[in-house]
Write a structure and sequence with these properties.
The structure is a single chain. This protein is mainly alpha-helical and about 140 residues long. The chain has one domain: Winged helix-like DNA-binding domain superfamily/Winged helix DNA-binding domain (Arc Repressor Mutant, subunit A), CATH 1.10.10.10. About 70% of the residues lie in helices and about 5% in strands. The chain contains six helices and two strands. A two-stranded antiparallel sheet has the order 1-2. Strand 1 and strand 2 form a beta hairpin. The protein is globular.
């Protein structure tokens, strides 16, 4: 099963990297874009925890997003050692197109499934995700 999940992940990553070339965004940037949009003001440290990535990658990704005028950092109000992350107007402007790219990929992958099958797959994978997370946090 791991082989199939890993292959799906790599194929999604390859598709996204290719589709987002014109925006000069890669796979990490796209994940950051969506999480920052949903949680504006999230700390970089909290984002690392949610995405399960190291802080060095987060720093590089956020720096690149700042250079591209997609996101910006602000010193944390309660902790001067942390940064709160926000999207720029440009970041908010490209968000719908990024959403369309992701949705199109998943629609294409799941085109041969009924709506019920697709919903079942999502529920089961989500259940596995939460179980795996709880096992690694213990």
């Amino acid at each position: 099963m791991g082989k199939y999940i890993a292959t799906l992940y790599r194929q999604e990553q390859k598709y996204i990297n290719n589709a987002m070339k014109e925006y000069k965004l890669g796979f990490s940037s796209y994940k950051f874009l969506f999480h920052i949009a949903r949680h504006e003001g999230i700390s970089q440290k909290e984002l690392c925890k949610i995405l399960n990535i190291d802080e060095a990658l987060a720093t590089r990704t956020v720096k690149k997003m700042e250079e591209q005028k997609i996101a910006y950092r602000k010193k944390g109000e309660n902790d001067s050692h942390s940064y709160a992350l926000y999207l720029t107007d440009y970041g908010k402007q490209i968000l719908p197109e990024m959403t369309n790219i992701i949705e199109q990929w998943w629609d294409d992958v799941m085109v041969d499934m009924s709506k019920e099958e697709a919903e079942t797959v999502l529920k089961l994978v989500e259940k596995m995700y939460w179980k795996a997370r709880s096992m690694n946090e213990a």
